[in-house]
């Protein structure tokens, strides 16, 4: 994972760097920049998974920097550092994921950083399997749900579906630690694609309706609320 942090104030730049280091993220590179122009001078798509920008910087603000980044890279997670909560509204135009207020309690700071890393793991992590001597790879964010039946697994994505020989319990073992939840026997759903939960069903982002098993209802509602509030 490559992370860029941009702040014209060395104190806050070093503070954020140290907080990220304390999280002990595996295979993580953290690069510091003191201005948006420094970052943009050599930025190419895919260089970073996460960029954390100070909103108030001279010459080129964090919001202006983010606008230029978005012209190059639509996937990178952009978050902002700021002293003022009112700047948060402006970040929606560049798809900001999180605003981090400076000088806030440590536990809040850590919680926000953890949510950014969790989003990164979900957005860029892939699921790989073999089918008929071919290897397939899908980003987790593109997966709607899995359905297991006997020794086969059906994978439903935003672009279509595919069936392959596999073990549903193995899929659950790999993905339940991310934003996936079992909603019925043999059905594993991506929480990121749930649009609504009714009394008996969940409705996915593509409009598909899937029934919720009675024994799973309380757990799926609790996990989805926790997931939604965490974002």
TrEMBL record:
Pfam families: LytTR (PF04397), Response_reg (PF00072). One of its GO terms (molecular function) is DNA binding. Gene3D superfamilies: 3.40.50.2300, LytTr DNA-binding domain. InterPro entries: CheY-like_superfamily (IPR011006), LytR-like (IPR046947), LytTR_DNA-bd_dom (IPR007492), Sig_transdc_resp-reg_receiver (IPR001789). The modification 4-aspartylphosphate is found at residue 54. Keywords: DNA-binding, Phosphoprotein. Residues 127-226 form the HTH LytTR-type domain. It comes from the Bacteria. Residues 2-117 form the Response regulatory domain. May play the central regulatory role in sporulation. It may be an element of the effector pathway responsible for the activation of sporulation genes in response to nutritional stress. Spo0A may act in concert with spo0H (a sigma factor) to control the expression of some genes that are critical to the sporulation process. This is Stage 0 sporulation protein A homolog. It comes from Hominimerdicola aceti.
